[in-house]
Amino acid sequence: MRSVDIMAVRTVFDSYFRVVEAKVRYQLPNGQMSGLVRRLSLERGDSAAAVIVNTVEGTAIVARQFRFPTARTGPGWLLELVAGVIEQGETPEACIRREIFEELGYEVSRVDPISVFYTSPGGSSERVHLFHAEVIAELRTGCGGGLPEEGEDIETLEIPLAHLPKLLDSGEIVDAKTLIGLRWLADRLDQPGG
């Protein structure tokens, strides 16, 4: 593993998101250290997301919601896994349990970790903690739909598991965490006993 020297870090913007500027040097393939370079990073915080399966109905549950950054170059309304930003002092598991209840209205008895990955490491520090959860109708004790005070208006969709490969090939899923999570689920279903 090559070394990195972080020489200085300062916040250049701090509102809903925080942007930091770093001055760094890193080891080159020849073993020498690079010159001082400037890098910016969007410090959004980590998030948690879940691949949710209704085991009785044989469906994957996703949310459709408006995402402004995609409205100028894409659909605006995206199909996504349930997800949310991990709050200070909260574990990734507690976050995804909270988000599943807020967005879908389900209590879950168990969530299993799948992976942790960076969303856009060239410009953001955000990592996604991806989980798998199974639900049944009896566990739906809330309304779902998101939190109105946060401007959320979330539609719930149930996709038959047999339709996942076609959906993934259609190009309709353009959110990275959702592509990763639903591809994981489709691959799992293709395995013997899946």
Q: From the 3D structure, determine the CATH topology of the largest domain.
A: Nucleoside Triphosphate Pyrophosphohydrolase
Helix content: 10-25%
What is the mean predicted local confidence, pLDDT? 91
Radius of gyration: 19 Å
How many domain modules? 2
Shape by Cα distribution? globular
Give the number of DSSP strands: 10
Low-confidence stretches: none
Overall SS class: alpha+beta
Strand content: 35-45%
Order of helices and strands: EEEEEHEEHEEEHH
CATH homologous superfamily name of the largest domain?
Answer: Nucleoside Triphosphate Pyrophosphohydrolase
Largest sheet: 7 strands, mixed
Q: Quick summary of this structure?
A:
This protein has helices at 68-71, 92-104, 164-170, 176-190, and strands at 4-14, 18-26, 37-43, 47-54, 59-66, 77-80, 82-85, 111-118, 127-135, 155-160. It is α+β, with helices and mostly antiparallel strands and 194 residues long. The chain folds into two domains: 4-43, no CATH class; 47-190, Nucleoside Triphosphate Pyrophosphohydrolase (Alpha-Beta Complex), CATH 3.90.79.
